[in-house]
Amino acid sequence: MLNWANQFNICCFLDNHHYPSHYQTIECIAAVGAVKIFTAQNNILEQLNEFCTNNHDWLFGHLSYDLKNEIAHLQSAHPDPIGFPDVFFFQPEIVVQLKDARCIISSLTKNPETVFNEIINTSVIADGASYTVSIQPRITKQEYLQTIERLLKHILRGDCYEINLCQEFYAENALINPVTVYTRLTAVSPTPFAAFYKLDNTYLLCASPERYIQRKGNQLISQPIKGTCKRELSDAAADAVLKAQLQQSEKDRSENVMIVDLVRNDLSRVCKEGTVKVAELFGIYSFPQVHQLISTISGELDEGTGFADIIKATFPMGSMTGAPKLKVMQLIEQYEKTKRGIYSGAVGYINPDNDFDFNVVIRSILYNAADRYLCYLVGGGITFQSDPEKEYAECLLKAAAIQTALRGYDRLPVI
Q1: CA 12 to the chain's CA centroid
Q2: Contacts of 110 (CB under 8 A, 6+ apart)
Q3: Residue 181 and residue 160: Cα distance in Å, rounded?
Q4: Helix axes 141-157, 325-335, angle to 10 degrees
Q5: Alpha-carbon span 31 to 12, nearest angstrom
Q6: Which pLDDT belongs to residue 24?
Q7: In this structure, is residue 280 part of a structural domain?
Q8: Angle between helix 44-53 and helix 307-314 axes, rounded to 10 deg
Q9: What is the CATH classification number for the domain harbouring 80?
Q10: What is the model's pLDDT at position 251?
């Protein structure tokens, strides 16, 4: 399915890698071709609301982090070398779903049986080439540590409680096969919100473990992640100790509950009074490289609330900003060096019943094939309890799967 989808100029391939969850509705889905597209630079949400209201089919696409400039009346002056638009949605020509050992194909232009035969006859080309991709940090480790120290002063002054700081690692003149790298990435780190997303020459290769927001009927669900520790896969007893330490960590629980409060506040703007609840607090979930604390917040949606209204109330997601949201977005712009673009944004779908599900774009490789620019961003939540050295180590931990996926392609720096 993935190799077949990649033949199209526009495609979105979403895979949950069989993670068990009663919230999950899509196992694996591919959307290709574009019958209609939506993108805009001004009055984005107003136009998006109209586009979604007039559409009664599947829509796939993304929200860039920099949509916050319209929502919160902010500006961004940093460079954006990847070039995804702030918002993009498309009505696909063909949708292919895998569900309970069934393949469900719907198409506006082709017989589904023809599509099925095209998929199963698509060649899967193994690319074992070792291209040279020289990864380097946008800022030095010392600059990162100094920035953390400055942010801690902001926290002590009461400017904010928690702030998510990200740094970029990048390569110029990079030449890769995006399908191969995505396959390597998700083999090393299979996650419930993985995405291969292509708009012409721009690619997102995403191994995200985090849900931004889901709608099922009149229910909204958000599942922010805050709190991370490494795994010790060679020693089950040591791994269990690390997992227990994370669950009991005062610093990580403090990080998590701050964002839970922020998400509760966001959902309350579009949900019926008294319906916003924390279904799970400090749930601990294990992924191939890390254990993480995940909380689940839900609410009953107000009648007549459109998709764009929900986005305006909840975006960007609190786990990628911090609190209070407006102030930390201003500080992020002040201290980071690159536009986040689609990173810290969301990729997902809206189905014909107006239900939707969107991930948080993290643990991802971004690639502009035309300009041969490749990058990935990693970061974490900074609170008054943060230790700069440990925060830097957490960044490298979160980048481990990406570095493994690029190995054979890259010359990684000694950090």
Answers
A1: 14
A2: 94
A3: 38
A4: 150
A5: 5
A6: 83
A7: yes
A8: 140
A9: 3.60.120.10
A10: 87
Q: What is the mean pLDDT of residues 6-12?
A: 97
Q: How confident is the prediction for the chain on average, in pLDDT? A: 93
- Is residue 99 predicted with pLDDT exceeding 60? yes
Host domain of residue 207: 2-406
pLDDT at 316: 97
Specify if 222 maps to a domain. Answer: yes
132 pLDDT higher than 70? no
Handedness of CA 395, 265, 75, 10 (dihedral sign): positive
Number of residues that make up the chain = 415
Number of domains in the chain: 1
User: Catalytic residues, which ones?
Assistant: 210, 226
Q: DSSP letters along 355-402, please?
A: -EEEE---SEEEEETTTTEEEEEEEEEE-TT--HHHHHHHHHHHTHHH
397 touches 103 (CB < 8 A)? no
Helix runs in 203-321, H state only: 236-248, 250-268, 307-314
Between 236-248 and 250-268, two packed helices, what is the crossing angle to 10 degrees? 60
The answer to whether the CB of 196 falls within 8 A of the CB of 178 is yes
Q: Kindly state the tokens that stand for 165.
A: 């700081």
**Phi and psi of 192, rounded to 5°?**
-75, -10
**Residue 411 domain flag:** no
Per-residue pLDDT tens over the stretch 303-348? 999 999 999 999 999 999 999 999 999 999 999 999 999 999 999 9
Question: 151-157 long-range CB contacts below 8 Å, 24 or more apart?
Answer: 151/331, 151/335, 151/382, 152/382, 152/384, 152/386, 154/331, 155/382, 155/383, 155/384, 156/384
Give the pLDDT confidence score for residue 100 in this predicted structure.
83
Average pLDDT over residues 101-107: 94
Q: pLDDT band for position 407 (50/70/90)?
A: confident
126, pLDDT greater than 70? no
Question: Is the pLDDT score of 216 beyond 60?
Answer: yes
Amino acid identity of residue 311, one-letter, is I
Question: Is there a domain that residue 412 lies in?
Answer: no
